[in-house]
Amino acid sequence: MLSDLLYRLRAFFRRKSMEAELDEELRAHLERQVEKYIQSGLPREEAARRARLDFGGLEQVKEECRDARGVNLVETLIQDVRYGLRMLAKNPGFTAVAVLTLALGIGANTAIFTLVDAVMLKSLPVANPQELYRVGNGDNCCMIGEFQGNWGIYSYSLYQQFRDHTPEFSQMAAFQAGLGDLSVRRGGASQLAEAYVGEFVSGNYFTMFGVSASAGRLIAPTDDRPGAPPVAVMSYRAWQQHFGLDRSVIGATFIINTMPFTVAGIAPPGFFGDTLRSDPPDFWLSLSTEPALNGQNSVLNHAGLHWLCIIGRLKPGAQPASVQSELTAELQHWQGAQPDLTAHNRSELGKQHLVLVPGGGGVARLQADSATGLRLLMAISGLVLLIACATVANLMLARGAARRAETAIRTALGAPRRRLIRQMFTESILLAVLGGAAGLIVAWSGARAILEIAFRGAGYVPISPNPSLPVLGFAFAVSLVTGIVFGVAPAWVASRCDPAEALRGAGRSTHDRSSLPRKSLVVFQVALSEVLLIGAGLLTQTLRNLENQKFGFETQGRVIARVDPALAGYKPDQLYALYQQLRQRLTQIPGVLGAAYSLYSPMRGTNWDDYIHVEGRPSDERDDASFDRVSPHYFETIGTRLWRGRVITEEDTPTSPQVAVINQTFARKYLPNQDPIGKHFGFLKPSEFEIVGVVEDAKYQDARGPAYPTFFLPFLQKAKDPKLFWLESSQYMGDIELRVAGRPEDLNAEVRRTLADIDPNLTILDMKSLSEQVAQNFNQDRLVARLTELFGALALILACVGLYGVTAYTVARRTNEIGIRMALGADRKSVLALVLRGALGLIVLGLAIGIPAALAGGRVLASLLYGVKGWDPLTLGLGAVALAICALVAAFVPARRGTKVDPIIALRYE
Amino acid sequence: MSTKRIDLPQGTLDLLILKTLALGPQHGWAVSERIQQISSEVLRIQQGSLYPALHRLERRGWIKAKWGTSENNRRAKYYELTKSGRKQLEAEETAWRKLIAAVGHVLETA
User: Fold this and answer.
1) Chain B residue with minimal CA distance to A66?
2) B1 to chain A, minimum CA–CA distance in Å?
3) What is the ipTM of this complex?
4) B-chain residues within 8 Å CB-CB of A28?
């Protein structure tokens, strides 16, 4: 084996001298044979002829000897590549079109794969991610007080239970499921506080992940104890972007939500925490600081409030399946021992379970959210690549036809069929690799654009558009496969070339082997383009329907500013004074027509929801409703209409009777066929709130479904029952709504200044128009729609190019025939009809295949569509007509050229 | 004359070359002459086909080649059996004899 390799290598590197030796050896043989014949009395001429006959084809023998030496494989490859490159360089137009087509096809796939790799395949940048497991895969967020069924988040007490009773884990860390806003300024500095993102983590969080500080130290278990000095860890990115890698930050005091913290150190570069998401934490704080930081709203010591995710490192050899059942048992045991367990929950105890899932990728929320979209995009980009393959295969077939004479001569000279096929494949793979290399540029810019659309509104996304090693490997593999796929047809046609026929016919014959594969390819292109076009139409309509639906509020001329008085250190009893001046100060800003504030604004991604009891309705444990707290003038500011009764006004004070405004769905569901005004309901008792008004339904969370039953409470009317302690934090406004004239962006500075006037610590966390806030809910729909549109347009162009090529080629081949027809009296119109009929046949056949395929595609898309059916006749019809028109135009151009042929020239034409 | 000649069965050329070289180092032409002579011109071997076979055997390490001077003072490439080539020859000879015996037996009895 080794000697064989050495022999081959020697043969390869000494191939010049070995070639000379072979020459000499064979020549010597022939000389001897000639001598033998001369000696036997033959004349020299005859002797030489006989010797050559005895020997056989000299060149063939040499080729076989090279094969036998094993050097040939490498050598012919180099020859083929050189020859292929020469052929490509000779035909720059063809090469450019083919490489561009392939670059788009391969680039589109690589761009999507960059995303798939980053979102689905990559692990967190931590030590040995394959050892990590997440306790529970439920995607609940961010705080929940009820049984979850399939659990995903836990209270601190439950975490301690798991941590201390599951020895199979070497480390088990807890961290906040939803991130929190922080208002941060450097201690001693005079500048205003800035908005950052923070996350509470257990003391062993960084140890569990096995990451080490890039400067200073990370949070340690000793920091996570009641009474320990509060420390924070800053992300490398925040350190770099906001503090210019200033080393004096380490050990410095930072005021976080009015509480002093010491920055212990900086996390490693590239570490973005436990979850792949946009805007990951800038600061990590230990769980033990939560009570001091959140004050009365603290949740750390509420055993029944679940808000922490858990990831742990399993010891080597531990069986995830058995650990999972152990944890489920612990969960049920712990729940059963809670003192406030209701009878209903006790009956549900057996259904409570959790699953242990691999945690190397972190909490897979983004993965779960984007799986459908990514799969769809991969399928679509795959279609585009197929179309690109068909286009290039067609181009190569056309060129193959032009090279028929060349192929014929090579065959006649004794080139084995195998060698010809290999040559064709070498050329196609060469093209594909060139296309793949160019495709990397397309992929890089494509991935950047995709990230921009997919994460619209995000400040920072920890996903790089730069191709990683797996992405490069993917692009190369796709190029190879692509090269083979589109090389098959040309190679087949070339290998069937009959030299005698080809040399004799030399373009005059109407018989053409490549015409059937070429036409099939065009039909295939038309069909695939039709599928993509119709898909693009459906998804575009979906996006339009989603964005332009009746939301129940006005999206235009509204601005939302996100604030959190808790971050500025407001205690609940200080809110009244703040709210008293807020609206009045804001409405004084020129351009502001109306101002209001609420716990949350529509389509912000927040929802408060709890069980309720309604007066006159039999108690049902499943009755629940969403709720919001709103200021006076709220509904008129966001443009929600009042149907009955009144809205929340200045008269609804902390001391006035407790009232609520409900939406229509609430009235329909819980108070059907009666006047809801004056009726009562509540969280614990049906007597807490009196209904004073009914407003129009508005969508607050789910844009695809109907509005939830919802009620609206005034601020600062406090719950009397101590069990409703958790309602306290709903007294803090989360959003300010402004109705404005002119461009919303112009108000930005003025609003910030006004708030800073009221309180310099009152940081605006985010400010955008309501239409933008709504639009960000449809990022994935938009991404899918835009990309499908782009790919559909690309497919259409490629199909037209294909049809153009085939028609032009047909016209060229039939120049003779057309000349004869015209000489015999056919007019231009009939010749045009003759050529177009052929093209139309292909288009109709393509549509006949494409429309059923598109219908099947529509069924696959069904779950993504909104307000349009997968078989929407208008979309189907428009798609087919658009494709047919474009394709006919593409065929018309060369067809017309065919009719301009002068019959005399045509008949002479070869 | 040509009607009497028969084509060489697949794979036997290697055996004949090895056997010929067992007598001593030879150059290509001599090998071909020798096979023709000994087989009394019955076997038809295209002379050219000898060389790919020689190169293949060399690559397998059964024969080795070196340049020498021939009887009439011309440079020639001599092929020589190696140790493993000798073993291979024995193995192939045995196999061949078995094959002939078996085929012969079938032809006589069947």
Assistant:
1) B52
2) 15
3) 0.87
4) 27-29, 74-77
| DSSP annotation string for A650-686 | TT--TTSPPEEEEEHHHHHHHSTTS--TT-EEESSST
Q: Where are the alpha helices (H) located in A340-416, listed in sequence order?
A: 343-348, 365-402, 404-412
Handedness of CA A853, A859, A863, A868 (dihedral sign): positive
Q: Does residue A910 belong to the interface with chain B, where contact is any CB pair within 8 Å?
A: no
Q: Which three-class secondary structure state does DSSP give residue A106?
A: helix
Cβ contacts of A33 on chain B, cutoff 8 Å: 29, 47
Q: Could you give the count of Cα atoms lying within 13 Å of A476 in the half-sphere of its Cβ?
A: 7
Number of structural domains chain B divides into: 1
Q: Using CA atoms, how far apart are residues A363 and A360, in angstroms rounded to an integer? A: 9
Q: Are A591 and A740 in contact (CB under 8 A)?
A: yes
Assign A150 to helix, strand or coil: strand
- pTM for this one? 0.76
Interface of B with A (CB under 8 A): 27-29, 32-33, 46-49, 51-53, 55-56, 58-61, 67, 74-77
Question: CA-to-CA distance for A173 and A310, rounded, in angstroms?
Answer: 6
Q: Kindly state the DSSP code that residue A363 receives in the 8-state scheme.
A: B
State how far residue A61 is from chain B, nearest Cα, in angstroms.
6
* A823-829 CB contacts, 8 Å cutoff, 24+ apart: A823/A903, A823/A907, A828/A899, A828/A900
Cα of A417 to nearest chain B Cα, Å: 20
Q: Give tens-digit pLDDT for A403-439.
A: 777 777 777 776 777 778 888 888 888 999 999 999 9
Return the percentage of chain A with pLDDT > 70, whole number.
Answer: 95
C-beta separation of A124 from A270 below 8 A: no
CB contact under 8 Å between A68 and B77, yes or no, is no
Q: Do B28 and A29 touch (CB under 8 A)?
A: yes
Between strands A180-186 and A194-201, the pairing is antiparallel
CA distance A484 to A396: 13
Residue-wise over A557-585: b if at least 16 C-beta within 10 A, else e? bbbbbbbbbbbbbbebeebeebbeebbee
What single-letter amino acid sits at A169?
A: F
CA–CA dist A13, A92 (Å, integer)? 33
Measured distance CA(A381)–CA(A379) in Å, rounded? 6
Give the CATH number, domain containing residue B81: 1.10.10.10
Which of A22, A33, A69 lies at the smallest CB-CB distance from B59? A69
Whole-angstrom Cα distance, residue A750 to residue A734?
Answer: 19
| Residue of chain B nearest A63, judged by CA positions | B52
pLDDT digits (tens, 9 = 90+) for A524-561: 889 999 999 999 999 999 999 999 999 999 999 999 99
Instruction: Output the CA torsion B35→B41→B42→B44 (10° steps).
Output: 70
Does residue A667 have a pLDDT over 60? Answer: yes
Nearest Cα neighbor of A552 from A736, A696, A738, A735 is A696
A23 touches B: beta carbon within 8 Å: no
Which residue range is the domain that position B51 belongs to?
2-109
Instruction: Note whether A198 and A282 are within 8 A (CB).
Output: yes
